[in-house]
Write a structure and sequence with these properties.
- With about 325 residues, the protein is an alpha/beta fold.
- It has two domains: about 200 residues, Vaccinia Virus protein VP39 (Rossmann fold); about 80 residues, Putative methyltransferase TM0872, insert domain (DNA polymerase, domain 1, Orthogonal Bundle), CATH 1.10.150.
- About 40% of the residues lie in helices and about 15% in strands.
- Strands 3-2-1-4-5-7-6 form a seven-stranded mixed beta sheet, with helices on both faces.
- It is globular and about 60 Å long.
Length: about 325
């Protein structure tokens, strides 16, 4: 397979997110969440012949796809790693002086969501898996089999922002103990029965619960925090960080990180002399990017997307 044969996959905010990286002036760029190569294709179209793109993904199917699709391009490198290990990947590439751009598209990818066998979707029957790396960690079924009632309720309330977290948690645990949780369809039906009323307009009652369990199984917020810290460390002065989020918790984490990294001294105001020695490492760039009406109409999954851009300051 060549790049020309690559199935068209247009990620959310693809053009504007890649433009924000300024790849035309970059020497080294990291696509930290390769997926099916939508961003990588656009980045490579801007990079010069002596430049390089390092792509990361923890999903073996994504890695295999990337190696087939872009393997003939000498500028392209593919590594099977979670994006939290970007520092390790950059070091192994020999880029000791850093990179000029890092892009991350958070959450589950469309191919993962569309494959019932991966267990991410409440619309199709599939195994209760939900792992982004199917070779690592407990499945959703295993996680649900071991989770304590208070922890399940916390996850649903915090990660899913589920209003009826306690009611849904009790229903899930009752179904689990009765042996009735075997597939994604089983879980979806239990949740739909537990959430009262008609639910939210244009959103399935199971959406929040599936999101919450997926985030817990994949430790997504913990991975994000580790990634942000590692990403700013590998950026060269003037390099850009672009992060696309689809969930309010993820976006708040990105927003908070950029805000904190844009501050100098954080000592209490009554300290006569700075004792923290903190120096700003990032500056926000422009306003957050959001899909326009045309993109939202063409791709309903784009409706909640937001991208934040920051630039690395000189040390």
């Amino acid at each position: 397979m060549s790049v020309a044969d690559l199935p068209e996959h247009e990620p959310v905010l693809a053009r504007r997110a890649v433009e924000a990286l300024r790849p035309e002036s970059a020497e080294r760029v990291v696509d930290a969440t390769f997926g099916r190569g939508g961003h990588s294709r656009r980045i490579l179209a801007h990079l010069g012949g002596d430049c390089a793109l390092l792509a990361l993904d923890r999903d073996p199917e994504a890695v295999a796809f990337g190696e087939r699709a872009f393997g003939d391009d000498p500028r392209f490198r593919m590594r099977r790693l979670p994006f939290s290990r970007i520092g390790e990947a950059v070091a192994e590439a020999g880029w000791d002086d850093g990179v000029d751009g890092v892009l991350a598209d958070l959450g589950v990818s469309s191919p993962q969501l569309d494959d019932p066998a991966r267990g991410f979707s409440f619309r199709e029957q599939g195994p209760l898996d939900m792992r982004m790396d199917p070779d690592s960690g407990p499945t959703a079924a295993e996680w649900l089999a071991a989770v304590a009632p208070a922890e399940l309720e916390r996850v649903l309330r915090q990660y899913g922002e589920e209003r009826y977290a306690r009611r849904v948690a009790r229903a899930i645990l009752a179904a689990r103990d009765a042996g009735g949780l075997r597939t994604t369809g089983d879980l979806a039906e239990v949740v739909r029965g537990a959430v009262p009323g008609r639910g939210e307009r244009s959103k399935d009652k199971a959406t929040r619960t599936f999101q919450a369990i997926r985030m817990a199984v994949n430790a997504e917020l913990e991975e994000l925090e580790a990634f942000l810290a590692a990403a700013v460390a590998v950026l060269r002065p003037g390099g850009r960080l672009v992060v696309i989020a689809f969930h309010s918790l993820e976006d708040r984490a990105v927003k908070r990180f950029i805000r904190e990294e844009a501050r100098d001294c954080v000592c209490p105001p009554d300290f006569p002399v700075c004792r923290c020695d903190k120096v700003a490492r990032l500056k926000p760039v422009g306003k957050p990017l959001r899909p326009d009406a045309e993109e939202r109409a063409a791709n309903p999954r784009a409706r909640s997307a937001i991208a934040r851009v920051a630039e690395r300051l000189a040390a």
